[in-house]
Give the backbone structure.
Amino acid sequence: MKKLIITLICLTLLSSFLFAQDSTKIAAVVGDEVILESDVEQFQTEYSQTVQQTIPRDQAIDMLIQEELILEKANKEGIEVTNSDVDRRLNEAIKNVTSQFPSYDQFLQALKSQGLTLEQLKSQYREQISKQIKKQTILNQEVFSDISVTNFDLKNYYETHADSLPTRPMTMKIGVIKVGAKVGKENLDKALEKIKMIQNELDKGKNFSKLAREYSDCPSGKNGGNLGYFSRGSMVKPFEDVAFDLEVGKVSEPVKTRFGYHLIKVEEKKPGEIKASHILIKTGVGEKDKSVAKSEIQEVKTKLEQGGDFENIAEQYSDSLTTTGLQRITEVPVNQIEQFPLFSDTLKNLQEGEISSILNDDSDYYIFKNLGYEKERPYTFDEVSQQLKNVVRQEKQQEALENWIEELKKEIYVKKF
């Protein structure tokens, strides 16, 4: 687990080496700094762990020399890094690492199992982060600030690399209409009645965690409703809007989301994050609700079979498709249809212009139509211009960096052994 934490932080900080000082054998000298053979070996090890490929010794030394040249130049130019800058970058790195764990508490437990506290982990990386900020600052100021990518650059790259650019694969244009069963008033009322009963128990002084374990329909219920720490954008909006406005220790009024009714309790608050627990009573879909949805999807199928316009019918009937990865009309590479496992067998066998049978996934009902194919062909300039912009910018930056490094070697003493 410690290896996971360190590797993730190294990736976040865009740094792939730690300076070991356990060997006196010199690999290179840059200005007043010495690069030891142990530094090179450590760099090679960290590089292979993060990039999943080996790097030759000479290339590793060259990269370390480049890093030291940039840092030496930053120091000569008086680039300073404030504690607040380091803290901000460090907190971002820690946040990225904690997102790899099921909860913030489990991240802390993983640190503890390695004999580390969060502050000790931060302390290990403060100097490394400070160096990274210095180097990025000097590069932005002296190397990258004047780099721009014009439309001429993009078109020139597109034309000169036309033979090596990937082709646009054969695609299938898929139309999909989804009709989901809506929770009826009867089930909504039952769920609301139950959550209010639980609220009443809380008002009488009953323990929130105990009630969550007893009543909550969420898997977190077995842990007393504990959701751990989360930031905005992690939960559905109605839940977040209430949770982030709650005072610590307070319990919300019933909050309705697409999952059901919640009672929310905020345990702790940090800048941009809260730790909360909740009790969820799901609003289940009844057979009557499913029957209504079945009738509606059958009406959709009839209209399509009678020649109705797919887009107009989809606009009139279809629910949101956010959970499927599809849009109402989507072009999908034929060789990637498997990415929709619930529907792939149907889509693969659907002939051009054909309407599928009614498919269902629990209480959601679907109809698909094969709206046609487009053969494999080269991408047009407009289709790839945004991607090419990043490629061209990176090439310009790399060329500018290489030229700048060569100039630095005239200014700063470099000796490789």
